[in-house]
Amino acid sequence: MASPSLDFEVIVIGAGHAGTEAAHAAAQMGCRTALVTLNPDRIGFLSCNPAMGGLAKGQLIKEIDALGGIMGMQTDKTAIQYRRLNSSKGPAVRSSRAQCDKPLYARKMRKFIETLPNVTILGFEVADLLWESSGEKNKITGVRLRDGSILRARAVVVTSGTFMRAVMHTGFEQSEGGRVGDEAAKTLSRSIEELGFRLRRLKTGTPPRLDRASIDWSKTEPQAGDAVPIPFSFYYRGDRFPELPQVNCFITHTNSQTHEIIENNFDRSPMFTGIIQGVGPRYCPSIEDKVKRFNDKDRHQIFLEPEGLDVPEIYVNGMSTSLPRDVQEDFIHSIVGLEEAKFLKHGYAVEYDAVDARRLRATLEAKDVGGLFFAGQVNGTSGYEEAGAQGLIAGMNAALLVREKEPLTLARHDGYIGVLIDDLILKGSDEPYRMFTSRAEYRLHLREDNADLRLSEMGYRAGLLSEENYRTFETKREAITKLGREVEERFLYPNEATNAWLRERALPILKDKTPFSAFLRRPEVKIELLGEVPVETKLNFSGMAPEVIEQVEIQVKYAGYIQRDLELLESVKKNEELRIPLSLDYARVPGLSTEIRNVLVETRPETIGQVSRLMGVTPAAVANLHIYLKMQRSAEA
Ligand SMILES: Cc1cc2nc3c(=O)[nH]c(=O)nc-3n(C[C@H](O)[C@H](O)[C@H](O)COP(=O)(O)OP(=O)(O)OC[C@H]3O[C@@H](n4cnc5c(N)ncnc54)[C@H](O)[C@@H]3O)c2cc1C
């Protein structure tokens, strides 16, 4: 009997963090979208720790939100602890983090996706991709489900996370599955390989979960959240913030006995005995890895984090492991406060197939297969935020492709999302890639506080950010401009009244007429002081949003550094705009060495800017290519 065929415009495979962003973006931009997932009860499920954001990752969530995505909003609905990291340091490295209620996050995400008008959720396994040959390039036409049904669409976004040919390991025990409680995706990898992609094995791991009631909390150190939390979403519209009661996390440490137990069992570790072949994240190592690599350290910090308000599970952050169960129990019980801890789940590692993202364009569409997009952990990243950011870009571009509109790509100077995608498509990743602030060149420009100023206009123009949110953004932008102008145009004078007022506050007196902006640049001056200065033109902050005031303070105080970033950025922008046709025949470009030509043929960069960042490509080669393209263009003109 012939299987039924269903028509969509965009199909998203997978409903994790990349999949939900992709489906939401495509649907919001007007496309009939199918969201196909192995398990509809786990839409937006937080596979590991229910913590969102953190260093550089907080910036990613803010950027997703600024463009019109959903991760920030869902975090605000379910956060049980907010912490702005590095709040005493400069604005470039401040990042927000929130501990969420894990079951609630998934429930709210499912409910939200179910209410989207253009999304159909299908609880099936996608067995194969379907495509046709069209000229030199293949073109995606849809997918086949495990029961044989066919779904058709012009664009397909693969966000299969840790699920393709996934195997879980605890000691020498192995079982198929993308994470505990979920099956593996068994055949999708084959289809991707048939399209010419090389797959590699990566690995990630998770720590044990302990029963809250069995921990001796009196022996641990509480870590409170922020006294005045700030929503993740620029467009937060709840009646009561924060929406949920806020709770503490707790700190304890490993000790020499813990390390000894682990060391004595290295020979039972699937990682050290070669059973796990996949490459794990170096920056987020398992505890056995940490004990081996940093054997001069006599203790490691551990955070005990609640997985929700009404759930017994406590996540033991810092203790990811795939050692056997009995070893896990022994070493956990050696830790202060955890002597009697009861295990609710043991730690495990999962190995899975990932694609080489160097085969993708900056839109995350495959260079050789029209309409096929990849986003999330399948591209060799790790983390919800990295996945969500890619899902958003892939979903938006899938919709733009279907509507035959200009694609939307972000450059490195537009945001951390631009940095992430540029790194992936140019360098690929030999190990799960996570975002760090140090990966970005323009850190002072790419702050989390100005993500909306950088990206909301783009999100709105592309059709993703809603009209209502855009109005909110415009109001804020106008308020910032107005206050910024007042700070530039108003002055303090070196008269008796002002200098007496300064002396009272132990501040240096004025000798010259001084703009408010110059006064504000003094390290000891906070912007609030400009509302108290003894002049008629003092600022009036009443009714003004704190984020407007903070933005102006940052822009004025760090103006010199920001300007330097912007000047640097202007000089590289030109190279980003110089596009290279994917079909360029590099054999015809004079002056390139064979090695460099091979790199270019293999990567097929899309701009001169990308060429300049490729490993092994010399400035002379960039110049040769530049000249060749210019000559081509003038010959065509
Ligand atoms: C054990 C474990 C430990 C982790 N530890 C960390 C950590 O320490 N730090 C960190 O940052 N991140 C960690 N992660 C990673 C984090 O969970 C992922 O980065 C994030 O969930 C990736 O999001 P994603 O959307 O790409 O994929 P996922 O969240 O994995 O979602 C994949 C989705 O695809 C669906 N799917 C897959 N194949 C098919 C198919 N053929 N048909 C239909 N549906 C399909 C699945 O059902 C699922 O909905 C861990 C993950 C696991 C599993």
Fold and architecture overview:
The protein is an alpha+beta fold and about 625 residues long. Among the domains are: about 210-350, Elongation Factor Tu (Ef-tu), domain 3, CATH 2.40.30; about 465-560, tRNA uridine 5-carboxymethylaminomethyl modification enzyme MnmG/GidA (Arc Repressor Mutant, subunit A), CATH 1.10.10; about 580-635, DNA polymerase, domain 1. The strands form six sheets. A six-stranded antiparallel β-sheet has the order 16-17-18-19-15-20, with no helix packed on it. Strands 1, 8, 9, 10 and 22 form a five-stranded mixed β-sheet that branches. Strands 7-3-2-11-23 form a five-stranded parallel β-sheet, covered by helices on one side. The chain is globular, with a radius of gyration of 26 Å. The protein starts with a strand and ends with a helix. The site of flavin-adenine dinucleotide has 36 residues, from α1, β3, β14 and α9.
Task: Describe the structure in brief.
With 637 residues, the protein is an alpha+beta fold. Helices cover 34% and strands 18% of the residues.
Descriptors for this entry?
637 residues; alpha+beta; Elongation Factor Tu (Ef-tu), domain 3; Arc Repressor Mutant, subunit A; DNA polymerase, domain 1; six-stranded antiparallel β-sheet; five-stranded mixed β-sheet; 25 strands; 18% strand; binds flavin-adenine dinucleotide
Blueprint (SSEs and pairs):
Layout: E1 5-7, E2 10-13, H1 17-28, E3 33-37, E4 51-53, H2 57-67, H3 71-78, E5 79-85, E6 95-100, H4 102-114, E7 119-123, E8 126-134, E9 137-145, E10 150-152, E11 155-158, E12 167-170, E13 173-176, H5 188-194, E14 199-206, E15 209-211, E16 221-223, E17 249-253, H6 256-264, H7 287-293, E18 301-306, E19 313-317, H8 325-333, E20 343-345, E21 348-355, E22 369-370, E23 372-374, H9 384-402, H10 416-427, H11 451-461, H12 467-489, E24 491-492, H13 496-504, E25 514-515, H14 516-520, H15 546-557, H16 559-577, H17 594-603, H18 608-612, H19 619-636
Parallel strand pairs: 1-10, 2-3, 2-11, 3-7, 9-22, 11-23
Antiparallel strand pairs: 4-6, 5-6, 8-9, 9-10, 12-13, 12-21, 14-21, 15-19, 15-20, 16-17, 17-18, 18-19, 24-25
Helix pairs in contact: 1-9, 2-9, 2-11, 3-4, 6-8, 11-12, 12-15
Bound molecules: flavin-adenine dinucleotide.
Flavin-adenine dinucleotide binds next to α1, β3, β14 and α9.
